[in-house]
Amino acid sequence: MLNKFADVENCPIRNILDRIGDKWSMLILLLLNEEQVMRFNEIHKSIDSISQKMLSSTLKSLEADDLVQRKIYPEIPPKVEYRLTERGKSLIPHLQSLVNWASVNFEDISNSRLQYAK
């Protein structure tokens, strides 16, 4: 039983949470869930503290995991839209549960951190 988390490469918990548990992925997924379809600059304006380079990198990772779909329209200048895939949509209820849990517990956890730091 203790060895089930030993193999980093094949551990679903470590592998998947490492990818979506970064600073930006969950925010992007939740935003795309709310807005359905967004262009790069719309996402960037909605999360203004993310750099364009980090946004691009995060979107590529989410696309590689088939959580986000990137659609390019053959126009000049090129039009690119992002939306959740079916796999991405299936993740949303779990992320929303985590958001709800965080909202309910945030104040108590913040107080616990203050107490711990004393």
TrEMBL record:
Give the superkingdom in one word.
Bacteria
From the UniProt annotation, give the residues forming the signal peptide.
none
Q: Does the keyword Oxidoreductase apply?
A: no
Instruction: List the top taxonomic levels of the source.
Output: Bacteria, Pseudomonadati, Bacteroidota, Cytophagia, Cytophagales
One Pfam family of this chain: HxlR
Against InterPro entries, the record matches this protein to:
HTH_HxlR, WH-like_DNA-bd_sf, WH_DNA-bd_sf
List each copy of the HTH hxlR-type domain by range. 11-110
What is the protein's given name?
Transcriptional regulator
* Protein keywords: DNA-binding, Transcription, Transcription regulation
